[in-house]
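Subgroup meeting minutes
Present: P.N., E.W., G.H.
Scribe: E.W.

1. P.N. recapped why we're keeping a running log of single-chain structure predictions: easier to compare across weeks, and new members can see raw inputs and outputs side by side.
2. G.H. added today's entry (460 aa).
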Amino acid sequence: MSHAPFSSLALQPALLENLASLGYTAMTPIQARSLPPMLAGRDVIGQGRTGSGKTAAFGLGLLNRLEPSRFRVQTLVLCPTRELADQVAREIRRLARAIANIKVLTLCGGLPIGPQIGSLEHGAHVVVGTPGRIEDHLRKRTLDLSQVGTLVLDEADRMLEMGFQEALDAIVGQLPTRRQTLLFSATFPESIQAMAGQLMDDPEHIHIQGGHDHGSIRQHFFRLQDNKQRLVAVRLLLLQQRPESTVVFCNTKRESQEVADELCAQGFTALALHGDLDQKQRDETLVRFANKSASVLVATDVAARGLDIDALDAVINYHIGRDSDVHTHRIGRTGRAGSKGAAYTLYTGKEEHKAVRLEADLDLSIEPEVLPPFRLLEHPAEPPAMVTLQIDGGRKAKVRPGDILGALTGEHGIAGKQVGKIDLFDHCAYVAVERNAAKPALRKLRDGKLKGRRFRVRRL
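Output recorded in log:
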């Protein structure tokens, strides 16, 4: 843990004095590790949980570079939601108090665009905004990004989750190629790695551990008396562990459908994923599982190929996989991105030979464990945190993620933090909202308009 003082950095004296007056003396680990490369002008990827002090880190980095006498937009900070943008803008203003005439402007959706255009005419040094609204201003030519020297992407994983990739591409296309790019993300999935590869120049990657070792997967094996016990075992494990997201691997299409149906009958929110689904069903299934509105996905190995679900809490092998590669591939889907994962494998005496082979191939010692107590079956399954709303309008109707977010969070709407993933397809869109916000969200979308039109909306 580093507790170096801010005074050890090459910051402008006015910034240092202001930090002292705000009571900021020692740096947090992410500040101590990210500020030196930032101040040296390097691109930085900062990976750490919320509350790690990242806003002050990039805030100081960008303020140190500003030239107050040049009244141009020199820094653009992109955030996924209006609440976060407001919070970030407030923090930057606090850090900038000691520098005269620094103007920080917030541009977010869900608010009238007229007053924003008026503010932009007066100029600003720092613009903090949501991708959808920044893109609107670029389209209207009311925002000029040609002088931007620093681009900050805050909560980049959440921006991609909310479907802002296309808006980000459009915005980056308007920025100078010679610039500093700072990217902050709690997780670092493949989509973020790809984005960093496109946007950044030899970035310094700073990862502040959230406690877990990367890829720590705990394996558990259960030797069952017979096949009839398999489903009971799955239910017991789900009720005891209460994972937010679980994939149950089955060997056949039919079995995966039967297990999903049976789990639903027992009160779980389970979906099947197998080769008999058409593309629309497959899309819908993956959307609902990835956005946390279904907690169990029962899949065959073939159907699960290319399944890019990042925060998977548990994998349950309904049977031992046909070989050790399949087993390794299945369990490798949990414990990603620095989080802990658990893998539970069920087998009967008839599969004992497969267990022996796994031990030899993977250098494991398989000690069968006792199943959780049967009294757990009396407990109800917990519903998932989110629900999915389907909108009968997508890309072809020019609907964008920012429109959906704006419609939900506008006047008398729900909070931005209650909105989850937004997925856009050609003819429909899906948005996840917190379960307790589902009714007002549905009402808001049904009564309001998107792109000046009314669309049919239903809860899945």
